[in-house]
């Protein structure tokens, strides 16, 4: 039988959606109510709806993987439930009980399980979203909300697949500042990154590496992934200063590195240190980590009109080891010693 998503080879990121979606409403006084699964389709909205004006919105991103033996696995979904609530709290939105989040995923994904592709590199991307729905133009927290989940069968996030990407280091525009909302998953952070992304793309780069807002000196993260630098046997990743998203893949890489007895440093790392490391050969690999991007090798950084090639623009050994270890767990190919897999049944 033909898969509902068509040819798995042709899947791109986030353009196709499954047949159903989950939604649940919240209102002050009533709390969460009216949870339901229905056919995927548009919402009717009052033009004054709060989210459309002041961006009171948070979201999550995770994936369902089809194991070779047919099991359907999520990767650390309780971490997404928790991060959603941390994001919500920072934008004065109500917390969603973790059971609602997990039960909704369970029911919705099992219902649309035929949409989970199973060829290498493909999965079902899950987008839980919480929006402010009160129709009101005052700048105030909404009294009504809608939480919903949509599903999208996806292929690789980057056109390059598991091949080194070239990244533009942005030294003027800023994604997020300490004290702001860079450490939560809210739409505004992505809107703020669009111009930088657009300019980078015009120059032929697939992503932007953001620096800190105050000094334009310390490395923060890439548009949709955290970053890691490999110095021989040591891994360095920017510490969570408050303007970086605490990635669940980032946390998983740190734990895997410790298991592998690699030294891990979470600290501030300046762009000068990175470039110096590339020039002297001490920095041997760089990669990004994220749900959509998985582990993505970085082959070149462009900073102030100069290209800096890392590992001759080739995928490095340590990058490949992390990639393999992570996808082996995500696709259920190895024993889940860390308790990260969450089977839906
Ligand atoms: N940083 C940003 C800005 C992101 O959008 C993402 C993607 O979710 C990440 C990092 C990686 O986070 P995670 O590993 O939880 O997907
Ligand atoms: C994810 O990796 O889940 C993301 O949210 C990245 C995205 C903004 C495309």
Could you describe the 3D structure shown?
The longest helix has 16 residues, at 187-202. The protein is globular and about 60 Å long. The protein has helices spanning 50-54, 77-90, 98-111, 187-202, 248-259, 271-280, 317-330; strands at 20-27, 31-39, 57-59, 62-66, 72-75, 123-132, 144-154, 165-170, 207-211, 219-222, 226-231, 234-238, 263-267, 285-290, 294-303, 306-309, 341-344. It has 345 residues and is α+β, with helices and mostly antiparallel strands. The chain has two domains: 8-154, Aminotransferase class 4, branched-chain amino acid transferase, N-terminal domain (D-amino Acid Aminotransferase, Chain A, domain 1, 2-Layer Sandwich), CATH 3.30.470.10; 165-330, D-amino Acid Aminotransferase, Chain A, domain 2 (Alpha-Beta Barrel). Strand 12 (234-238), helix 5 (248-259) and strand 13 form a beta-alpha-beta unit. The strands form two sheets. Strands 8, 9, 10, 11, 12, 13, 14, 15 and 16 form a nine-stranded mixed sheet that branches. Strands 1, 2, 3, 4, 5, 6, 7 and 17 form an eight-stranded antiparallel sheet that branches. It has seven helices and 17 strands. The structure holds pyridoxal-5'-phosphate (PLP) and 2-OXO-4-methylpentanoic acid. 2-OXO-4-methylpentanoic acid is lined by residues 61, 190, 224, 290-292.
């Amino acid at each position: 039988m033909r898969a509902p998503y068509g040819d798995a080879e042709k899947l791109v990121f986030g353009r196709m959606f499954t047949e159903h979606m989950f939604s649940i409403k919240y209102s002050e006084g009533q709390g969460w109510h009216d949870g339901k699964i229905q056919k995927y389709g548009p919402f009717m909205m009052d033009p004054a709806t709060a989210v459309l004006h002041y961006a009171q919105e948070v979201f999550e991103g995770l994936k369902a993987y089809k194991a070779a033996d047919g099991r359907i696995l999520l990767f650390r979904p309780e971490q997404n439930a928790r991060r959603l609530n941390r994001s919500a709290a920072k934008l004065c939105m109500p917390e969603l009980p973790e059971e609602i989040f997990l039960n909704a995923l369970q029911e919705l994904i099992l219902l649309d399980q035929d949409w989970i592709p199973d060829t290498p590199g493909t999965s079902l991307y899950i987008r839980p979203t919480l929006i402010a729905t009160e129709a009101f133009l005052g700048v105030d927290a909404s009294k009504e909300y809608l939480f919903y989940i949509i599903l999208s069968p996806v292929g690789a996030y980057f056109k390059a697949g598991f091949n080194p990407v070239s990244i533009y280091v942005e030294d003027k525009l800023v994604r997020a500042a300490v004290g702001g909302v860079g450490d939560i998953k809210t739409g505004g952070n992505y809107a703020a990154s669009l111009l930088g992304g657009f300019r980078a793309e015009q120059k032929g780069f697939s992503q932007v590496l953001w620096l800190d807002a105050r000094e334009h000196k310390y490395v923060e993260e890439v548009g949709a992934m955290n970053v890691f630098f490999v110095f021989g046997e040591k891994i360095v990743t920017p510490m969570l200063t408050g303007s970086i998203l605490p990635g669940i893949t980032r946390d998983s890489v740190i734990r895997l590195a410790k298991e592998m007895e690699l030294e891990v440093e979470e600290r501030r790392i300046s762009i000068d240190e990175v470039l110096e490391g590339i020039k002297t050969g001490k920095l041997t690999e760089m990669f990004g980590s994220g749900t959509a991007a998985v582990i993505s090798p970085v082959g070149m950084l462009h900073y102030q009109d100069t290209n800096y090639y890392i590992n001759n623009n080739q995928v490095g050994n340590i990058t490949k080891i992390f990639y393999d270890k992570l996808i082996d767990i995500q696709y259920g190919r190895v024993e889940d010693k860390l308790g990260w897999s969450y089977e839906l049944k």
